[in-house]
From TrEMBL:
GO terms for cellular component: excinuclease repair complex. It comes from Stutzerimonas kirkiae. The keyword Hydrolase applies. This is Excinuclease cho. GO terms for biological process: nucleotide-excision repair; SOS response. The keyword Hydrolase applies. Keywords: DNA damage, DNA excision, DNA repair, Endonuclease, Excision nuclease, Hydrolase, Nuclease, SOS response. SUPFAM superfamilies: GIY-YIG endonuclease (SSF82771). One of its GO terms (molecular function) is hydrolase activity. Residues 28-102 form the GIY-YIG domain.
Amino acid sequence: MPRPRSIAPAELYEYPAHLRDTVSAMPGGPGVYLLFGAAGAPLYIGKSVNLRARLLSHLRTPEEARLLRQTRSIEVRPTAGEVGALLLESRLIKELQPLYNKRLRKSRRLSSIALCEEGIDIVDTTAAAATRPLYGLFRSRRAATESLCELADEHGLCLALLGLERPSGRACFRHQIGKCRGACVGHESPGEHRQRLSEALANWKVEHWPHPAAIALYERHDELEAFHVINQWHYLGSFPSLAAAREAPSRPPASFDADSYRILVRPIMAPTVPIIELGS
């Protein structure tokens, strides 16, 4: 049986011949690119503000070079801007499940912290009401709990009042070692403790939807225009005209969409593209 041929460094970083003409003809604007392997199997999906430059740079590491050697064809889908590219990339990765995309292959069931009368509640972001204040986006309930315990120790909060430990009617262990200020034994009122909890969580706050109804984010590149309809952090589709965007269904699901939130929070809270109010 013949031994596998070793690949010389010069060959490793040489663009595969069967892809050169395709990449040279790629547009230079924003969009999403899809790499397909044998029998049309999706290998990788990426986005860029300059598709041609990004594809030509896919030789920066040995891993990227190996990916290109497996690639049999490349497809690009131009967008009107970076926001549209991010949204399209996220959707296509979930739909096509490419082999080498790990981060966005599934809709993530993240956990967040919500305040309740009993202290705190750790909720699944995919089931949480969109209008409910949430704090933090964690990979699991366990990660949320561990982070909350660290926050409690840092701010002298009581795990019993937070609902993370069963009340014993006496000073909790953390008070005995100086990490709880004593809300469990009346050294501060529940109201004072709750106020300090709110202040401690402030930096983790998931931004509240800042608009009364749906909006459209407008992008344009050359002759390509797009109106991305968003409501309660849910991406509801992209449309070629404002009239089409206004006619699109704009009622969001009741859940919180963590992936859309992470893509959209910056361009919406510190607008990097024009925002158009669509009304109720």
